[in-house]
Amino acid sequence: MTSRECDHIWKMIHVAYGYIITEKCSRCEIVSTYFSFEDLPPLEEYREGEHFWNVVESAQSFRFDFQCEKCGQLEKFDELMGLLMCTGCDKNCQVAKLQEILEKERTWVYVAFGFLPKANHIQLPAKKIGMLEDFFNHRRNSTDSRIKIVSQELVSDYSLCYGKVIKDVNMLCLTLPEEGA
Amino acid sequence: MKLQEIIEKLNLQPVTKVEEKNVQGVFISDLLSDVMTSANAGDIWLTVQTHHNIIAVANLVNIAAIVVTHGKKVPEETVSLGNRYHVIILSTPHSIFDTAAKLNATGLKSK
Predict the structure, then answer these.
(1) Dihedrals φ, ψ of B68, to 5°?
(2) If DSSP codes are grouped into helix, strand and coil, which group holds residue B90?
(3) At A71, which helix (H) or strand (E)?
(4) CB pairs under 8 A between A and B
(5) Which of B49, B59, B73 sits opposite A171 (nearest CB)?
(6) CA B37 to CA A66: how far, in whole Å?
(7) Ramachandran assignment for B11, one of left (phi > 0), alpha (psi -120 to 50 degrees), beta (any other)
(8) Does residue A178 form part of some domain?
(9) A87: nearest CA in chain B?
């Protein structure tokens, strides 16, 4: 059986934990993100070409590849920064409109984000977004509800999006136990 | 095992609406990355995290229910998202260790 004929069942392999580093240029304010295995990002401003980068955030995350359990085909996912669950905060956003339609069928929309700036990074192609969707729906093992994953290109205005890309940051906001607990 | 049976045996407090689900196993972690890579559909997830992204991850993996331990208060934003996405959140004043021990006694295992 060739990989083209295979009805793939993807498994997650080569899982590697690291950090998503977010930096901002102090001159032009452009934002850059990249994956790093280093737990300490550059703390001081550094120059790269015309940009002067300053760290905004370092968040624990992971990267992975997919391999088909049946035919062995390997697909790398280095282009994926993370997934964001649509909460429908901007009613004019294409993603929120899709969520509103699909929510009635208990289908939940997630956005696949690539690294920034978009012009400097290869973005996740539609074929791989489809693979992600297949993987999570197969793994969810449910006929009651489904996952729909779409490209970040559908997000109309990032400044109006209150959703957060899933990564381990700002998770340690300590709250006290309730009285009497 | 039915979720309602576990709720009764461990005296877990519902934080969101509860619907009947089958529980297959138990997963313990406070890292979203761990849940995304290693949890199984139908697992009960024990955590101290209450950030609203726990709903995003639990929904993605189809977690049977999140159990927030140590009596931590769950923010309204997280509760609201849980109700909307049919992700069940339960609460217990006990520690993760004690809760895991009680789940183990019911016959549930980590896969």
Answers:
(1) -90, 120
(2) strand
(3) none
(4) 80
(5) B49
(6) 12
(7) left
(8) no
(9) B81
Q: For residue A47, what are the domain limits?
A: 10-168
Q: How far is A16 from chain B (nearest CA, A)?
A: 10
Which residues have a Cβ under 8 Å from the Cβ of A148 and sit 6 or more positions away?
A98, A102, A107, A108, A109, A110, A133
Span A140-157, pLDDT tens digits: 988 889 999 999 999 988
DSSP string of A135-151? Answer: HHHHHHT-SS-EEEEEE
Chain A contact probe: residue of B31, B33, B43, B50 with most A CBs at under 10 A: B33
B13: closest CA among B52, B56, B67, B80?
Answer: B67
Nearest CA in chain B to A165: B53
Whole-structure pTM value: 0.89
Number of H helices and number of E strands within chain B? Answer: 5, 5
Which pLDDT value is given to residue A159?
Answer: 77
Q: Is B37's pLDDT higher than 70?
A: yes
Q: What's the ipTM?
A: 0.91
Domain-wise residue ranges, chain B: 3-105
Tell me the CATH number of domain B3-105, given options 3.30.1330.10, 3.40.1390.20, 2.60.40.10, 1.10.10.920: 3.40.1390.20
